[in-house]
Amino acid sequence: MKRFNLFAILALLFLSVGACAQTTPKSTTAASGLTPKGTEVVQLDKESFKKLVFDFETLKEWKYSGSMPAILDFYADWCGPCRMLAPHLEELQAKYKGKLQVYKINTDKQKELAAAFGISSLPTIVFVPMTGQPQAAMGYRPLADLEAEVKNVLKVSN
Known about the structure:
By secondary structure, the chain is α/β, with parallel strands linked by helices. It has five helices and six strands; from the N terminus they run H-E-E-H-E-H-E-H-E-E-H. The chain has a six-stranded mixed β-sheet with strand order 1-2-4-3-5-6.
C-alpha cells in the first residue's frame, strides 16, 4: 500500500511539473515588416516594439504607433503569475480580434525594453489606448478585471 501511494504521489508531482513547464504562448514573433491584424498575440523585440508601439529612442513624448488599442504584457517564462495570465490574454485577443492587439515582451530576452520602461514587477500589464497615456497594472489579474480595463481604459467593446 505504501509503495502504491509513493508511486501515485511521484506520478502526480511529475505531471504537475510537466504542466508548469508548458509556457510557450500561442503567439507570433513580430518581424520588422509585420503589421498586426489583431488576430494573434504578438511577441515583440526592441526593434518591433519601436515600430509597432513607441519609438522610445527617438521620441521624448509618448505617441502610440499602433492602429488599434493594445495590451503590453511584460513577462518572464519562470514567472508563475505570468503563466496564469497568458491564457486570459489569449482569450481577450480572440474575443476582441481586429479591435485590440495583445503584445508580449519577454523581460529576460528584452532587458533594455524592461529597463527603459522601469519594469520591476512581473507580470506588468500596460493598457495602451489609441489616445492618451497608457496605464499599467502590476501582478496577476483575473479575466473579469482585464475585461473591465479593456472596456474602461481602452474603450473597446465586443
